[in-house]
């Protein structure tokens, strides 16, 4: 690791987090000095003031929909200072897999800088614990499609915007092992061909690979599920030194063919290791003996993939990557040895101005009178250093990219402090997913129910490959529908028990009381054919998303017509809960 001192990065981080309060005030001052003359801020009457009190008094809390008209004007080519003093050079598109719609967001150089700071910080702590050499990394990464907005700005995913920046290319040389695959693979136009070549290139350099990475755990699991299907073909390619005919894109063929030479002994070794594995347990350390860890976002909606990822990773540590969004970064994982379920993120106090809305779950009587959209009782937002350990909050931030008091919609729990900066655990997206009556269930509640019911399949060695849900109000009363894709067939008897278990595992008081009085009908479990979730993935990729950013939608609304159609057309059997029958 040249030109980069781990100690100095850690020292800088320690000093900064000790002075978190000071950095927050200073960061707000800089944001407002840089952008105070924008149309948005001028209309709010700040009049040049940059202190937190005036800021909070003048500037309202907003969501993306409040800012959409401003961002749209920027995308359409209005280069006057609307949200930022300097012109916005590009637009980022959120993954859209959470809410079904891709959001437009401003992208600026400052976001590249904060990305670098976050990457450098977590890398320094990671490398202190699990040092890696100068070798390569097997990275399942994909550049996404780009298009020009009406105003001629490039619009693509935030990660692609970052990958394309010069600053990123320079800094990453210092902090990240080189990707085993050439750029033509990363930026190829067919993700299935790119994925095959990532695996192939990773194996060509198997002794040099230091770690395995993808943005999200889903993509890591998807990659190794694919490997189970194509490994023999990859062995043949390595044995004869000729790329499979499945790779048809000329630029990928040319780039990969340059590094593919006949290597029968490597092919034999891979073949023998693969046949020697029991159900692919520990395939990663077996094939990449010098890999030190597996890295990617494994928290939140990625937790359901951890079991399978652990299976593939065997004894290798899984390290959860940092916490951010297309809007901007929030925190770095500086405790890499914690298992992903316990991962926390320390907020970096100089990348934005952070506030936290205290959230409390309402009591039962309040629940009955509250509208379906109120899941939490909110209090006044608190500053970064004022939050309390053990409490839950919604994240609000203001940054250099034109977002002011922006509600991110994520719920986090403060688990402690690193010096004076809070450590956050990601809990869930705030948006309610399942609600018919006075019931209120989030993606986390759904995940817990699915985990509980999936235990009944574990004895049969059957896994839930993926899952989602839907509120069906076409019946009276309405009911929850859970879709499951399974690794192999199970009996009706077991699936009926799983269905009952799912129903009973939603323990939210509103749900239980509604089920008891039949204000909500019996939960329905629908089993879909193998490959259904890959069709959903294909659908999102077709809309311009990328494999490595894919988050399966955990609740499909009626308006998400296409995805609901894919699910419904692939149902092979369904079960209705009898759990509440008297
Ligand atoms: P996107 O805007 O499509 O990049 O998605 C951003 C959202 O992904 C965040 O608001 C979070 O809900 C989720 N997310 C990002 N990083 C993490 C993380 N480390 N753990 C859990 N969820 C995350």
Automatic annotation (TrEMBL):
<dbReference type="Pfam" id="PF23572">
    <property type="entry name" value="GH3_C"/>
</dbReference>
<dbReference type="Pfam" id="PF03321">
    <property type="entry name" value="GH3"/>
</dbReference>
<protein>
    <recommendedName>
        <fullName>Jasmonic acid-amido synthetase JAR1</fullName>
    </recommendedName>
</protein>
<dbReference type="GO" id="GO:0005737">
    <property type="term" value="C:cytoplasm"/>
</dbReference>
<feature type="domain" description="GH3 C-terminal">
    <location>
        <begin position="444"/>
        <end position="559"/>
    </location>
</feature>
<comment type="similarity">
    <text>Belongs to the IAA-amido conjugating enzyme family.</text>
</comment>
<feature type="domain" description="GH3 middle">
    <location>
        <begin position="345"/>
        <end position="429"/>
    </location>
</feature>
<dbReference type="InterPro" id="IPR055377">
    <property type="entry name" value="GH3_M"/>
</dbReference>
<dbReference type="Pfam" id="PF23571">
    <property type="entry name" value="GH3_M"/>
</dbReference>
<dbReference type="InterPro" id="IPR055378">
    <property type="entry name" value="GH3_C"/>
</dbReference>
<keyword id="KW-0436">Ligase</keyword>
<dbReference type="GO" id="GO:0016881">
    <property type="term" value="F:acid-amino acid ligase activity"/>
</dbReference>
<dbReference type="InterPro" id="IPR004993">
    <property type="entry name" value="GH3"/>
</dbReference>
